[in-house]
Amino acid sequence: MTASAAAALVAGIGAGTAQAETHIRHYSGYDAEWACNADKAAMGSVPGSVVLCDRLNGGRYRLSVVPHAEIPLHMLALMATGSFDGLS
After folding, report:
1. Would you say which domain of life the source belongs to (predicted)?
2. Which pLDDT belongs to residue 76?
């Protein structure tokens, strides 16, 4: 994802803040973690939210924007489904 694509994505999320958890993209294969973290850095910060690279089972990663109030629910959902393997 280029910096301009990331900026357009952040602009599309809402009026400066994320209102609900948003899954942006999934990554798999060689350098999946690197690609997710590169896109996370390109997105920058989203006011009132945190941008996460969730490490899922099977070496897959997911770029997500999660509002601060939804972080516990986000973590609980990952653990309940057995998908959670850490955050980077």
Report:
1. Bacteria
2. 85
- State the chain's maximal CA–CA distance in angstroms: 35
Q: Could you report the per-residue pLDDT of 13-68, keeping only the tens digit for each?
A: 444 455 788 899 999 999 999 999 999 999 999 999 999 998 888 889 999 999 99
Among candidate residues 31, 33, 68, the one with its CA nearest the CA of residue 47 = 68
Yes or no: say if 52 and 87 are a contact pair by the CB < 8 Å rule: yes
What DSSP designation does 48 have? T
- Considering only CA atoms, give the Rg of the chain: 13
Q: How far apart are CA 18 and CA 14, in angstroms?
A: 6
Which residues have CB under 8 Å from 71's CB, separation 6+?
A: 50
What's the rounded Cα separation, in Å, for the pair 74 and 24? 14
DSSP characters for 12-44?
A: HHSSSS-SS-EEEEEE-STTHHHHHHHHHHHH-
